[in-house]
């Protein structure tokens, strides 16, 4: 599988994240970073949907519960934001489940709470195999 899927889109999203971290640093809440990132994406012309409700089903029946990723960019990249000192497996499981639920191929897990630099982990969804792989290109 090509680990550079949606390369241009990924670089644009990452650039916006880096700019928000450069301006704000760490220590704010996730909602502050989300609002800043939405402003930065608007300034850069990056299309996004915020808090989009992803429907879920079980054995062919729709569930009342929905997944709500922080951002869906370019209509095909899931972006999940965190503001924690360190990412843990539960955070990674969250974005993996978002990718499985949406069928999207790329997810970015962005942590603004890490010091001294932002953390961004990429996840690829191989729908042909039903597998989500973490790409080792942490920043």
Describe this structure as you would to a colleague.
- The protein has one domain (7-135).
- 34% of the residues lie in helices and 31% in strands.
- It is built from 3 helices and 8 strands.
- The strands form 2 sheets. The chain has a 6-stranded mixed β-sheet with strand order 1-4-5-6-7-8, with helices on both faces.
- A hairpin with a 4-residue loop joins strand 7 and strand 8.
- The longest helix has 18 residues, at 7-24.
- The radius of gyration is 15 Å and the shape is globular.
- It starts with 6 loop residues before the first helix and ends with a strand.
Summarize the structure.
This protein is α+β, with helices and mostly antiparallel strands and 139 residues long. It has one domain.
Give the arrangement of secondary structure elements.
Elements (H helix, E strand, L loop, with lengths): L6 H18 L5 H15 L3 E3 L3 E5 L2 E7 L3 E3 L3 E6 L6 H14 L3 E6 L7 E8 L4 E5 L4
Parallel strand pairs: 5-6
Antiparallel strand pairs: 1-4, 2-3, 4-5, 6-7, 7-8
Shape: globular
Number of structural units classed as domains: 1
- Provide the residue-averaged pLDDT: 91
How many angstroms separate the termini?
Answer: 21 Å
**Uncertain regions spanning at least 5 consecutive residues:** none
Number of strands: 8
Question: How many DSSP helices?
Answer: 3
Helix-and-strand structural type: alpha+beta
Query: What is the beta-strand fraction?
Result: 25-35%
* Residues in helices, as a percent range: 25-40%
Main sheet, how many strands, which sense, barrel?
6 strands, mixed
Strand order of the largest sheet: 1-4-5-6-7-8
* SSE topology string: HHEEEEEHEEE
Radius of gyration: 15 Å
